[in-house]
């Protein structure tokens, strides 16, 4: 990936954004989360209440439709489940928690779930941090670290162990170059943040292969390669190779809110689809220090 030298420029009241490769994908979930409300495809009560994201979309000068096509519910499902898991994790503890959001991009989850006490750490590539600083307001409990999530040795010591930590890696791990990179990341998180939890999603091998061949999401946008793939069939063996990590629960994208993806909800009842075809949402935990 060769990023542009800047993240864009201001044009009147709108901001022109210049990104490519993996950093450009931070605009993808923003479009689907906000644009879904205008499609009428899902019940309104299932949508995210996210006015800050809607404001972002209105301010960015970018051809969202031309690049990403018609909004799809998958990113809303991923975000809604993540919100719920963070709130559940906070409710487990009698002291404030920390959230470490890896590859956060323009996610506005902090403003959706903050209970007034959370410490929030945003870790993203320099392009992502720069754009986030330009487009989102500063928050007194939000630290930002410009680094690659896939080199945890560069930043894990900065996170701190004074609070229970929930790690969000939604929309990230599929861009890892290989399974070993993901194993190293989860191993480092388990060692550095004992007693925490982690939330991430994975894609199946058939979709990974399509991206490596150059998946055209629309005629105007080709998705970057997504080399790392994992389905339910391989999840137990994969988790067994990571010290201090265990899977607490996994879902297909249709499981958490089946009315949002009714066709996948029906297909996921078929064993071969559930185990080998469907993408996953995964909640894992890190063993506490003995």
Topology, pairings included?
Elements: E1 8-11, E2 14-17, H1 21-24, H2 27-35, H3 51-59, E3 60-61, H4 64-68, H5 74-91, E4 98-102, H6 109-113, E5 119-124, H7 126-135, E6 142-146, H8 156-159, E7 165-169, H9 179-192, E8 197-202, H10 205-212, E9 216-218, E10 221-222, H11 232-240, E11 245-252, H12 262-267, H13 271-277, E12 280-286
Parallel strand pairs: 2-3, 4-5, 4-7, 5-6, 7-8
Antiparallel strand pairs: 1-2, 8-12, 9-10, 11-12
Task: Kindly list the characteristics that best describe this protein.
alpha/beta, 20% strand, 290 residues, single chain, disordered N terminus, three-stranded mixed beta sheet, seven-stranded mixed beta sheet, 13 helices
Brief synopsis:
The chain has helices at 21-24, 27-35, 51-59, 64-68, 74-91, 109-113, 126-135, 156-159, 179-192, 205-212, 232-240, 262-267, 271-277, and strands spanning 8-11, 14-17, 60-61, 98-102, 119-124, 142-146, 165-169, 197-202, 216-218, 221-222, 245-252, 280-286. The protein is α/β, with parallel strands linked by helices.
**Widest sheet: strand order?**
6-5-4-7-8-12-11
Order of helices and strands: EEHHHEHHEHEHEHEHEHEEHEHHE
Mean residue pLDDT: 92
**pLDDT < 50 runs, ≥5 residues:** 1-11
Query: How widely separated are the two ends?
Result: 42 Å
The percent of residues in helical segments reads 25-40%
Overall structural class, as computed from helix and strand content, comes to alpha/beta
DSSP strand (E) fraction?
Answer: 15-25%
Q: Could you give the count of β-strands? A: 12
Task: Describe the global form.
Answer: globular
Q: What is the overall number of helices?
A: 13
Estimated radius of gyration: 18 Å
- Oligomeric state: single chain
